[in-house]
Each structure stands twice: as structure tokens, then as C-alpha cells.
Amino acid sequence: MKVDVILGLQWGDEGKGKIVDVFTPRYDIIARFQGGPNAGHTIIFDGKKYVLHTIPSGIFHQKTQNVIGNGVIIDPFILFKEIDKLREAGMKPEENLLVSKRAHLILPTHRLLDAALESEKGNSKIGSTLKGIGPTYTDKYGRNGLRVGNITETDFRNRYELLRKEHLDTIDYHGFDYRQHLLDGLTFEAYEEKWFDSIERMKSLRIIDSEVFLNTSLDQGKSVLAEGAQGTMLDVDFGSYPYVTSSNTITAGVCSGLGLSPHRIGKIFGIFKAYCTRVGSGPFPTELNDSDGEKMRIGGNEFGSTTGRPRRCGWLDLPALKYSIMLNGVDSLIMMKADVLNPFTAIKICTDYSLDGEVLNNFPFDLCDEKLGLVYKEMKGWDGPLDGCSTVTDLPAALAEYVMFIENQVGLPVDIISIGPDRVQTLQR
Ligand code: GDP
Ligand code: IMO
Ligand code: MG
């Protein structure tokens, strides 16, 4: 068997959580391959809303195993907050959750470092979620990190203390007063205490060599779906650097983040919104700072699932979408949040970027370039609700045309159209 992949093609928050949950009954295993609690994946069914940060979005289906892969970074405190919320809702997430020994741990001081480094950046802030993502991946690649497999070792506490001291020295060097900085409403010391309680609880989880488990499962004919976090435009290599996250969010990340050979990759599903959003700083060519942008934000409830920050909104950006499709080798597209465009009488799509009046054939090196021009096509909106649509054939003609235009431009089919946040508001073609 091969591993299928679902990932975001824009700046995150495309609706990956919803679609992974919808797809889960078709798979034996769902595996997260990168990112950490910077992610916020929303799943809505039976009138209830759940937001997952570290746990894969297949957790609501008891028969499916959910793997937190080696490429993910874990804050044990946040992981157990999630687990406890699911337990309060009557679930038993520990029963179908597996954690890689090789996944790196986010220490409380990684979170402080994140805050210290961001506060120093002033106007050029990344707009990080402040979950410690950058500093933890820095320690991973700097070969200083602590991994889940280390928590049962006798020298774990010593290694922790050494790293903690190094981090606090750096924080002091930057003149950041970490004692005034709260982590999820807690002082550093209080957070650290709860973090260690969570480390103890972690020992009861199923901690495995996830790369062996996944390869063996595929050999045994089990089906696996890899769940991405963030989006392609936040990829550390190909996103709008430096306004990116610190991991490879693209298909290539599946191989390193789960220990699977490229030969194992099966179908690649790329998710995009019918428009664009971005949370945090950085270039966003089609951003709308007007009433249309506000209409999208309110209609789409575009407020961060992890931080609650208002998301920036803008028209669909085809040059960025095409670039993402190329990088990921997407086979099938999934378009989300079509319903958010319901109230628009006219809809714009950016078809090209230009520089000095010339249309660009290649995606630019620097999206921050102020001279970047945008070419738009205007299309008729459907200007009405989609409530009665239960199959794609029910969709208004203007929406069908919008989808067809995108398909023609990018050369791929849009196989699913999502018209609302609930599981059931998903139309498959
Ligand atoms: P993810 O990070 O890619 O999983 O996406 P998020 O959960 O952060 O953000 C997507 C948001 O859009 C969530 O609030 C979802 O409940 C919501 N959502 C998903 N699909 C649709 C849709 O088709 N229509 C509307 N209106 N909301 C949707
Ligand atoms: P999901 O999985 C949207 C953004 C942050 C910031 C930048 C770097 O829910 O789609 P980081 O905390 O990684 O150092 O932040 O990346 N960002 C996201 N934006 N969705 C996400 O995840 C994001 N994860 C990080 O806002 O601009
Ligand atoms: Mg999200």
C-alpha cells in the first residue's frame, strides 16, 4: 500500500482538519508528519466543535490509529490539554494514539525563547504563534534537542537542566524579562511544573518507532493518510521566507517526517480555500484591506484556531496556488469555504503577477517586492446561499464556472467542494 497525503496549498488554515476527519473512515492510520501546536485543526460534527493542535484529525474514529510522527514537535503540556478535552467529551484518545520516539520535545524555555526573539524583531516580527516552534526545530537541527524517547532515560532531567540553562542564558542576553511573560496564563515556573507532570503522563502513552510501525503497516496492506500542518506558502524552503514556519510543510516532508521512502507516496490531495487567508506577518499579494476583506473575515469566521488572532483575507491567488501544486505534486484538489463567497456579486481571482508591466512566468524569489503587480480576472458571483445544495450538480452556475476556471488554469480537477464547516457539508464529485 501507499501513503496518501493531505496538505495545505496556501498559508495554512485551509480546512485540513475537516477533510482529514471526513476521509478517516477510508484509512487505517492517520499520521501527522511535521509542525507542532502552532497548528489548529478544527473538526465540527453533531453540533460540536473540536480544535486539535498536536493530535491527528483521525482521532474521532475509534478504529483508526493516529500517529504523531518523528517530524512533529510536541509540547507535552499542550498534548495533555488536548487529550483531557477529548476525554471530557467522552472519548478515549489514548487508545488510538501512537507517538514517535523520535519526535522532539518543546521545552518551556523554547516558548520563552520564541517570545524573546520575536519581541526583539520589532516591526519585522514573524507573527509566530509563540508555541516554541522555531527554537525547538533550531535545537533539533543544531543537534541539541530532547526527544520523546529520552523521557524514560535516567539522565533526562540532567539533559533538560543543561538545555534550560543555555536557553535562559540566551534569553537574559537578549534582555527579555521572562518572569513577566505568561505561558498559557501561567508563570514560567508554574508551566514548567505542569510540563513535568505531563512528561510523567506521557510515559503511559504508546511510544513507538513510528517509522517501523508505518512501513510494516503499509507492507501488511494497511492504508495510511499523512496529515499536513500549516501550508505550502509557510514552508521553510519555499514559503514567503522569512515569514514562514520552521518545517517542510510540503509532500517531501512526509518522507522525512514519517520515515517513508518517496516510493511509498500515493495520492496527494491539495487543499485550498476559495479565497486566501494568512495569520501573522509577511507578504500577502492579494490581501484586501477593505470591506470585501472584512466580509470574508466575518463570513468565514477567520480568526486563528490557535491564537484567536484575526486572519488577513484576500482573493484567490493562482500564481501561488500553481507554485504550491508544482512543489507538492498534487493529484487532486479540494476547495474549501465556497460558502464564504455567497454574498459577493462579483469575485476576483489573481491570475498572474507582473513586474514593471511584464507578466512573470516564474514565481518570484521575494514576495515582499513592493513593485509586484497583480493581474485580476473578475467573475460573476453566485450571490446567494448554498444551503439547499447536497450534490455538486445542485451548485449555482456561477460557482460551477468559478471552479471550472480554476481547474483550467491549474490543470487539475477540483474533486471536493466544501460548503460549510460541518462534516456533512462536503460535496464530492
Ligand atoms: P486547518 O488548520 O487547515 O485544519 O483549518 P482551521 O481549522 O484552522 O480553519 C478552517 C476553519 O474553517 C475552521 O473554523 C473550520 O471549521 C472552517 N471550515 C472548514 N471548511 C469550511 C467550509 O467549507 N465553510 C465554512 N464556512 N467554514 C469551513
Ligand atoms: P494550521 O496547521 C496558519 C504561521 C504563524 C506565523 C508563522 C510562523 O492550523 O494550518 P510559528 O508559530 O510556526 O513560528 O509561526 O506561521 N502559522 C500558521 N498560520 N495556520 C497554521 O497552522 C500555522 N502555523 C503557523 O501565524 O505567521
Ligand atoms: Mg488551522
Can you list the ligands bound to this structure? guanosine-5'-diphosphate, 6-O-phosphoryl inosine monophosphate, magnesium ion
Rounded radius of gyration (Å): 21 Å
Task: Catalogue the unreliable spans.
Answer: none
* H/I helix tally: 11
Tell me the distance between the termini: 24 Å
| Beta strand count | 20
Q: What is the arithmetic mean of pLDDT?
A: 97
Largest beta sheet: what is the strand line-up?
9-7-5-2-10-1-11-15-19-20
Give the biggest beta sheet: 10 strands, mixed
> Structural class of the secondary structure composition?
alpha/beta
Shape: globular
Helix content: 25-40%
Sheet-strand content, in percent, reads 15-25%
